[in-house]
């Protein structure tokens, strides 16, 4: 019997879809359209040369801006393609770095690398994927590592649907032995795609039975501390590299080191945080450390054998050591401390925790009780078309019981915030499924929704962070969509006003600051999802975004994401005319404040330039002002028109935007 084979387009450029961006980016932003450009034009970097398969002058101008090069570097100009020579140092780029809330009064700096750096990552993966896999499969301890290149095709037969991952529609990290219809990672990962799955795994539960103790530790500021040259140490040994520096630069490790330096503007101390390729870089180094410790323990006078005397599991830079004898733990931790020091790394002593059997953390206790609480109060099944009068949801009662759980388990709100919001999200999905397309009492339905929203915003507002903001927006997007489809105008307005009022309160309490912009931007997108009747007034919006309308200035620097999301929110509405003009002038000044020779080197300015060209809410007069700032002749009107109309979207999806869909796609890309 002939199988119905379905092929997934798998050009090597798909690396830019999954390996180069942080999770914590606005939902309006993606690499989907940049991927299409690279794929359609066949853009590649190979042996310090750039190739593409299109002779359109506009394409050539785009390539020159992406790589910061001029016509003098053109090597060949055939009827069907171009080749550009890359001079020494030209692949070095300034990444776009932005901060998000991390710990109390602390921020975490994330990175979007330059588009040209992303193209270099594509080529590196293409050339060295087999070596990446080889060096990522040496540890006995790792539970998250690339195992093989992700599948490119599947068969639409009974077996396919039997092996389809339960969450295949929004799968972010492919796990070995599961099939997916929408793949988003270049590699298939073995064995755990999210750290929360480890706590529920057979391995974890087996270790709980077998051992009396668990010791948890992580590496202090792991990505900030990794020395780029240490990749070569992990592959060739430190002394060999030091005595053969010239030769080592041409090896896999040397080229990985050079790539990591180039995309971080030549920096060797610390690697960029956020992209998947950084986690792979760290994984290769940590696998070497794991392997060394494993072998050292076997070589002791009284050998310590893994899975007999102890068990170690590592998820990225988080370690779990199971053991029965305190002396074994001291031996293992002591050796890790010494070996990490060889790589300029160290243990995070403050976060180290030890648990006695039963190995049950306060977080686990809280999670179990939260599940019970929500199952008891937010779950029901209906055999008729009428909701039982006995089904009643009280947000006040739920909030009180939630606080009792947090207090009783001795955990912090932030420790279980994401988990709780995820549980509520699942309950909302079930609620909508039961209540959609029926003749049930919509007044009662809307009352339940209002109580759920009350609980959700209480849990969120205690300590807003990007991850919890994304989960909050996922819940509100589902509820908004349900209300639009199934509630009458009065009930819909009640629900929409509740969402609006709650977001308004959060914005009022946590006005956007220089280092807290992404969280606010998501809330802004959620407000836009409500429709035009719930738009913020210009003065109110400007205030929350840190923009002084009267004095035509910004209270703090607005970064690329803030500029594009604000433009997306205000659209072409006349009511925001003054704000739009202030933003336009701010953009021009922002670009001018960067030296001309560094503008195309800046990831932020290059992405901003292309997005502004395609933005339908900015007029031609403004766009014409951008060209000379990037050394494009202001007299070539035809070229300028071509560049403006070249692509509908580059990195920001300006219209036809489905917030709910984008959030579902993003949800599964979470690593923690």
Entry summary:
51% of the residues lie in helices and 11% in strands. The protein has 672 residues and is of the alpha+beta class. The protein has a domain at 5-126 and 143-194.
Helix % is 40-55%
Q: What spatial order of strands do you see in the largest sheet?
A: 2-3-5-4
Low-confidence stretches: 1-8, 153-172, 176-183
Question: In total, how many beta strands?
Answer: 17
Shape label: flat
Radius of gyration: 27 Å
Assembly state here? single chain
Q: How many individual helices?
A: 29
Largest sheet: 4 strands, antiparallel
Which class of secondary structure composition applies to the elements?
Answer: alpha+beta
**Mean residue pLDDT:** 88
Q: How many angstroms separate the termini?
A: 43 Å
Strand content: 5-15%
